[in-house]
Amino acid sequence: MEEKFSIRKTKIAVGSVLIATVFGIGGQMVSADSWVANSPSTIKIAEGATSYTLKYGDTLWAVSQVIDIPVEALAQLNNIDLTTGQQYHLPVGYVIKWSADKSKLSLTDAEGNVQKELQRTADGNYTVVTSSKLMTVDEVLSRIESIQTENGLTTVKLKDGQDLQQFLSDIQNVPSESLDDKQDDKQLESPITVEGDVVKDTFNGADRVTLINPKNGMSSNFVLIESNGHYGLLDAGTSGAQKDYETVTGYLKKLGVETFDFVVVSHLDIDHMSTLATNAGNEKTTLFNDFTVKKLYIKNPENTTNYRIAPSLKISGKDFYDGHVAIYNNIIDNAKKTGTEVVTVEPGSQPSFDLGDFNIKLLNTESAKDDEKGNYWANLDSLVELVTKVDSKGDTYNMLVANDLEGYDIPETIQQLKDLGVDHLDVYELNHHGFSSDQAQAKDIPQTFGTPVTVVTNTESTYSRQRPERYSELKETYTNGLYWQGEGSVQVDFSNTEAVGVVVKQENNVNYTAVKVGDASKEVIQGIYDVPQTEEDLTVDGEAYMAQFETYKDTSLGILGDDVTSTEATANAVVESE
Question: What region holds the LysM domain (predicted)?
């Protein structure tokens, strides 16, 4: 999205703006006039955050405006050279970091005047020293002959005799000054850059979350998250059978996965981590052996010492505890043998990390508490993941992967989400495979955050037969799309949210659901694929919401293999505003 910036209406340090627009973010070479700077209003950084992963179109200046830290200080903290006098591009995915204590970062006095400058040290870094000479805004503007925009490229031309490198160095010492009264108001309709090519995101890849069905008729969580050519796993469980391992790894290899940036283990039940251990089932090998795993996020069971379980499970609390400790030790041993970094999720912490366009936060990290009957079981120790994407329009899309969250922990999880500023959920992986839907707190999540598209990691045919009342209640509660992963892998596609929203689709299922977030509403679009699919088949009120959507039978889901045989010729749609 392109915005016009008025110098007259914005309180800025002119030197910072001129430098920062040269610091475009990118990777692959494209023509200069195709690059558009992201405005501060389109960059979403959570309150209290101390890092941000750069996206295509970001500038260092825009980031500095969002977090309210002078661009000079931000550059100094990240060892970025502002005085090169050259076109300088930071790569997409570069992580900018800063201190939570902003009082130590200001380079200006109470009136906004720059009091310090950056001085290069012998090791090539920068240190902050007192400045003996300040330049005024007028002095800077007096050295500029013109600012011209042509063919989408804005060029700053210096007056004769002005040296570009010296100019870029001098403008660090410019005081922040309100230009409200300046008569020469220039609209910067495109970013200032020097002539030549600029860098764009190398990947420009898909943003997807796939809940993979191992084809075993059992409930399990094996959730692949993918963004810009990078991959991670939110749980890695099957039934523990070798054939299930071969099914899921065969799909991963067909997709081209070689490396996982991270794997998260929500808890130590076999259907959430079996592919990481060799003592949890009859699997002969692990993902650590067949893929590169950079980081493993896992809770240590030793942080919970009070294990009590229901007598009906016919196992003692000690045996239950010892079994989980043995599995944990096996996973840790497998990880360390292959060089995987182990990150212990401490009780009460809230780890947050990025994967391409996604941010992932781990919730419900407190040590397990007894349930209302005084029992402890592994589900009370289950992590929850919040997956968020803020697209180029500034719209936020949220998916909650609840794993085996139990009702006793739902109120606390809801409060954690509210504290993070979450006001809606678009997609929800239903807690505990739908088995805990009878708990009093089960409906609190949709009632608090709006009815999301919901995925149940269970088999619909079995669940409906064994729990007919709960099944009917689920259908009545989750009316914006209810998908059963046990009937076929489910993919949640965030790749083109600007045009179509987040789209949920499933193998062997001609139905899809799209959620389109707006300023004050949410549209839920339920449609039916046609084969072959055309743009005209996927329209709502004449608008081609699905213009860039793949044909169903070519969803790149690998193991999702069967073609759709439906002869439906139109897409039915229901639009709901919340």
Answer: 50-98
